[in-house]
Amino acid sequence: MISRDHILNKVRTALGHAVGRTAAAPPPARLCVPAWTVEERWQRFASALEKLGGNAVRVSEPAEAQRYVAGLTCGRAAVASRSLFLEVCGIHQLAGVRRDFRDPGELRAACAEAEFGITGADYALADTGSLAVFASPEEARLISLLPPVHIALLPISRLLTGLDELLSLVPNPAERSSALILITGPSRTADIEQILVRGVHGPGEIHVIVVDDRETRS
Amino acid sequence: MMTGYPREQIRRTLADPRLQEAIYSATGRLMEHRRQVVAPEVLPDYQELREQARRIKEHTLENLDAYLEQFEAQVRARGGEVIWAKDGPEVADFVLDLARRSNARLLVKSKSMTTEEIGLRERLEAQHFEVVETDLGEYIIQLAQERPYHIVAPALHKTREEVGEIFSQRLGVPRENVPERQTRIARTVLRQKFLTADIGITGANFLVADSGAVVLVENEGNARLTTSAPRIHVAVAGIEKLIPRAQDLAVFLKLLGRSATGQPLTVYTSILSGPRRQGEWDGPEQFYVVLLDGGRSRVLADRDKRQTLYCIRCGACLNHCPVYRRIGGHNYPWIYSGPIGKIASPQFQGLTEDPWLPFASSLCGACAEVCPVKIEIPRLLLELRAEIVKTQAREGQNRWERLGFRLWSWVMTRPRLYEALSLAAGLLAGEGSDQGWLRQLPGLLNAGPLRAWLDYRDLPAPGRSFRALWRQRTARVRE
Amino acid sequence: MPARVALFVTCIVDQFFPRVGLAMAEVLERLGYRVDFPEAQTCCGQPAFNTGYREEARHVARHFLSVFRDAEYVVVPSGSCTSMITRHYEELFRKDPEALEQARRLAPRVWEFSQFLLEVAGVEDVGARLPAVVTYHDSCHALRELGIREGPRRLLAKVRGLELREMPASQECCGFGGTFSVKFPEISASMVRTKVEAIHQTGAQYVVSVDASCLMQIQGALNRAGSPVRTLHLAEVLASR
Questions:
Q1: Which of the residues B73, B140, B197, C118 could staple to B230 if both were Cys, CB 3.0 to 4.6 A apart?
Q2: What ranges in A52-184 are assigned the alpha helix state H?
């Protein structure tokens, strides 16, 4: 408490402010949302993610998403989140996929062992090839982090143009969750002689499966 | 004025071809990466983004007291705690007390300049806690017992062979010189640390006032692990890290990744507000934000130089600085090197602590051109130079140089004297015409600035001055 | 009645590179200007300003203002000195309203040589001829404080027989930096070494710049390295025929 008052006093003195002064209005926020069609968004997303060494796949229906994931995991150990969309796609029925855990400790141990982490994503951002995931009872943080391969599924309606659109839809992420994580490609480093190495602490491989919905299905 | 200038050490750096190549090419690549992603055809509104970023930083600092209080209230409302620390020891005291209270033994850290600034890891280690850096570059630096070479790339100066040597010596693993395999080694060692750590310590790239959020950007996933696996998360951040709204991240995140490493967005961005909530599976049970003053409120008091606090630690000024690109990061006196270090150190560490520092710039202006928040670094360097000269005059230091400039200004305001002296110099050099070059000067003349010049370059010999030739020319024209 | 141009040749040109001043006068006269050389001129004050000696700099800057007060145009063979006068006097005279007013009145009439040619005289082709391969060094203050980038290249492109070859990192500082070059000679020398290498890579015979001070640094290093490459001020190129 002593340091608090000391610091605030020093700040106020530096600024010549009285106690209890309210902040002046900040400059208007700068958010620019381009008008891209679904097709444009998809193309930009796929090319941005692929440039980063990630894999973007578009499928026409949930069953196809299920088949695609099955082809990736081939029955090997995977941890899936409790995301409703994974349910829709029938991911939990795949061999080797585990979803239910008694407690956080068990979930963590499973993530540390699994070869795949499968999650939903609240949004994807087309211009940067990013995923936006809110931590929640449905989405544990470690599933997209500990296993060497991350697979994410989302409906194409959740594919936004970019960060600006995300922040205009969700102006205050803290109101929704204790953690909003943006994931842009596989984990990487260039700390040794600036040589790019993927999969440092997070997944070195990322697959994002975007599923068409009724309007976009051709 | 040159007190404390590590001339010998710098000469050694300059004479090390391996190191020179490493610094110059690494920074060169970072420059090129940045150039590609801020080019007008890729990011047409780059200049508007910079302008907005600067305006927001300016506004936030002008209203910092209010934003600090708003931030604190928001963190509390989400179940977190805010701790205020005047200096490094207060931060360490808090973390030590917390570690003891919660029976913690192992602490993992993600890269943070603020904790480097106050030597937090060393303070905790001195009290027998195990503290492990988890960013790969920072981990290498910790094992090598050095300090970071660069704000963004701490191990920029290390070759893979050196890393192999460090790993085999300190970790007892077989010697391995391939970066990919070296990374695997670090991943395996550090994975165990993450899973058994009690406390995760991070810095913060931004603190968001309207959300009470700590924002972390990174590429490896170590900051995510640091903030997801241990039961306690402590974020240590300077009070200048505030921004008003989460929506402002749209501007800052775009600029930070691009300016630092040429990435439109870094791989991971974590926007963290408070401990894990009801029903969540992971994330910390306790969430603390330590707000560090550490001299910032003093810098804030100077309306003009306050802009030093706009810095978002992207490192672009280092990469573009021809001086940093030669002398590297370890020849600067403080943890902040390069152009930003040259304006920050005198303000934080004291004006006359390393008086040479603001002078060690050719004022080329490359730093200001790339700064994402438009800090006027060259102008502040000039300002600091003037302040140092004034202080030294008061303290009776640097007498000869001051006398020299006084004489110089006396001569330069007396054109006839100026001309007479230039004539004398011409005669002394013994050159009849212009544009001869001298390789050396005799005896007494070979001293001071002339010698400093001649040690490395030829010097143009003063010959007949322009005014002499001009007079001749006008006389000819009249005839 | 042709316009009158006052030369401010700068102290470095006056002392060390008088040919640059003569070349500048020649080009301007060729374009029909009446060229004056106010003899009371010395220096703009930059060396003291950049080294932190503001009082001494003000002293010299006031002298400059008094010498050029009535000039119609002042043309300068240096981006750095031009910027000192047009931009930094503002800072220097923050607390001297009278000098500040003088500086503000003079500033719009002070021109760096290449900008004067392009923006005031409105010429790109001054009828020069120089059959040689040249490379252009972007002087920092001209480039970053005055925005001079394409101008000199446009002027060079019109010189008959001249081939311009860009060097790598032409915008990287040569390491001069005024007193920096003698306070930190080892760093300054390391910077100019890179510049010399870049120049050599082009195979050019001449390095051209709009600042004599950069050329002093570069030529000094070229000589020391035993290089046959010569530096030329843009004015010298444009005066040749």
A1: B197
A2: 62-73, 84-88, 104-113, 163-169
The answer to whether residue C184 neighbours chain B at the CB level (below 8 Å) is: yes
Same domain, B3 and B113: no
Q: What is the mean pLDDT of chain C?
A: 97
Q: Which fold has domain C124-239?
A: Rossmann fold (3.40.50)
pLDDT in tens, A138-175: 999 999 999 999 999 999 999 999 999 999 999 999 99
CB contact under 8 Å between B190 and A201, yes or no, is: yes
- Where does the pLDDT of residue B427 fall: very low under 50, low under 70, confident under 90, or very high at 90 and above? confident
Rounded alpha-carbon distances, angstroms, from residue B431 to A47, B452, C215, C218: 67, 22, 20, 21
Query: Which chain B residues have a beta carbon less than 8 Å from that of C182?
Result: 448-450, 452-453
- Smallest Cα distance from A102 to chain B, Å: 10
- Smallest CA-to-CA distance from A210 within A85, A102, A117, A106 is with A85
Specify whether B391 is located in the same domain as B438. Answer: no
In the CATH scheme, what is the code of domain C4-119?
3.40.50
What are the residue boundaries of the structural domains of chain C, listed by start?
A: 4-119, 124-239
The CA distance from C63 to the nearest CA of chain B, in Å, is 6
Domain assignment of residue B311, yes or no: no
Residue in chain C closest to B320 (alpha carbons) equals C172
Contact (CB<8Å) B323/C13: no
Average pLDDT of the residues in C188-210? 98
Among partner residues C13, C180, C186, which is closest to B466 by beta-carbon distance? C13
Instruction: Report DSSP letters for C46-81, one per residue.
Output: HHHHHHT-HHHHHHHHHHHHHHHTT-SEEEES-HHH
Average pLDDT over residues A24-44: 96
- What pLDDT is recorded for position B434? 44
**How many other CB atoms are found less than 10 A from the CB of residue B192?**
12
Nearest to B408 among C56, C186, C194 (CB): C56
Cβ of A191 within 8 Å of Cβ of B26? The answer is no
Q: What is the mean pLDDT of chain B?
A: 95
Give the pLDDT score at B432: 44
Name the nearest CA neighbour of A189 among B221, B192, B253: B221
Rounded Cα gap, residues B373 and B266, in angstroms: 18
Burial of B272 (0-12, 13-18, 19+ CB in 10 A): buried
| Domain positions in chain A | 36-211
Please compute the mean of the pLDDT values over residues B214-222 and round it to a whole number.
98
Hey, are the CB atoms on B221 and A7 less than 8 Å from each other?
no
Nearest CA in chain B to C144: B365
Contacts of C181 in chain B (CB under 8 A): 362, 452-453
User: What's the pLDDT tens digit per position in B434-445?
Assistant: 458 999 888 888
* Rounded percentage of chain B residues whose pLDDT exceeds 90: 92
Domain extent for B154: 46-297
Q: Is the pLDDT of residue B308 over 70?
A: yes
Classify domain A36-211 by CATH architecture: 3-Layer(aba) Sandwich (3.40)
- Alpha carbon distance B355, B358 (integer Å): 7
Question: Is B386 within the bounds of a domain?
Answer: yes
A168 and B247 within 8 Å at the Cβ level: the answer is: yes
Q: Does the residue B307 lie in any domain?
A: no
Q: Does B222 touch chain A (CB under 8 A)?
A: yes
Q: Number of C-alpha atoms within 13 angstroms, CB side, residue B139?
A: 29
- B219 inside domain: yes
**For residue B170, what is the domain's CATH number?**
3.40.50.10420
| pLDDT given for residue B435 in this prediction | 55
Total count of domains within chain B? 3
How far away is chain C from the Cα of B269, in angstroms, using its nearest Cα? 34
Backbone φ, ψ for residue B442 (5° rounding): -75, 150
Q: What integer is the mean pLDDT of B245-261?
A: 98
Share of residues in chain A with pLDDT > 70 (%): 98
Q: Which residues of A touch B163 (CB under 8 A)?
A: 192
